[in-house]
Write a structure and sequence with these properties.
InterPro entries: Enolase-ppase_E1, HAD-like_sf, HAD-SF_hydro_IA, HAD_sf. With about 250 residues, this protein is α/β, with parallel strands linked by helices. It is built from nine helices and eight strands. The radius of gyration is 19 Å and the shape is globular. The structure holds the ligand CSCCC(=O)C(=O)COP(=O)(O)O and magnesium ion. The site of magnesium ion has 7 residues, from loops.
Length: about 250
């Protein structure tokens, strides 16, 4: 189905929306799991590692948890695919090194880069909101297709600077940060609970239902649906009116 939206901003989910879930769970997750032991044991003095380990201890309710206990918790959260902020921070540290070494190359569906370029060209501001950390998002988009897509993006949000993706308050926090009216902000995601939370905050929503993705056959519960970004036009009516009269 083809859809057209008049909006000032598009906010993008990553896993299942711009990029394949299987790449995240079958390539990125095992890569981080196999490196957590050494990271926690050898680099706990680094500020970001220490901060994330302290957050993990708070989530566990165990202030004295040693590196081995924290590693077991990370493994459990990975197994459950729990989007815990310290897990995402530590994954981001490991993955950054994987991107720099060339072990990891981001995956984007083929329709994503052309669509982002079109929307950006039309004056629509682009943001990312993912459970993956802001540092990971920066790596992901800067190593993306055609020399990277980061230059098209105006801001990055994660569970640390915005909050959990299933909570309407997180979308209100993003609205405040980007200064775009909720009714002119369009969120694209595969997960129904995230779409519901965005809609509850007054945002426009589109359920991205890519064939083969885990949520492909889920009921969209009133959210408009597309199978790829190729079926989605986004522009700013004010801008097109202005340019058509000049
Ligand atoms: C490549 S971003 C990291 C992927 C990840 O760890 C994740 O949890 C993605 O979640 P999303 O909110 O983008 O569905
Ligand atoms: Mg997703």
């Amino acid at each position: 189905m083809n859809l057209t939206f008049d909006a000032d901003a598009v906010v993008l989910d990553i896993e299942g929306t711009t990029s394949a879930s299987a790449y995240v769970t079958e390539v990125l997750y095992p890569y981080s799991r196999s490196r957590f032991g050494a990271l926690l044991a050898d680099r706990g003095h680094e500020p970001d590692v220490r901060r994330a380990m302290d957050q993990a201890r708070r989530l566990l309710g165990d202030p004295g948890a040693d590196a081995a206990r924290v590693e077991r918790a990370l493994d459990d959260w990975l197994e459950e695919d729990r989007k815990a902020t310290p897990l995402k921070t530590l994954q981001g540290i490991v993955w950054a090194e994987g991107f720099a070494r060339g072990d990891l190359v981001p995956h984007f569906f083929d329709d994503v880069a052309p669509a982002l370029r079109d929307w950006h060209e039309a004056g629509v501001r682009l943001y990312v909101y993912s459970s993956g950390s802001v540092a990971t998002q920066r790596d992901w988009f800067s190593h993306g297709p055609g020399g990277g897509l980061l230059s098209l993006v105006d801001g990055l949000f994660d569970t640390e600077n915005a909050g959990p993706k299933q909570s309407p308050g997180s979308y209100r926090a993003i609205t405040e940060a980007i200064g775009t009216r909720p009714g002119r902000t369009l969120f694209l995601s595969d997960r129904p609970a995230e779409l519901d939370a965005a809609r509850a905050s007054g945002w426009l929503t589109v359920a991205v239902r890519r064939p083969g993705e885990p949520y492909h056959r889920h009921a969209a519960d009133g959210h408009p649906e597309v199978e790829s970004f190729a079926g989605l036009r986004v522009g700013r009516a004010e801008q097109s009116e202005a340019s058509s009269t000049s």
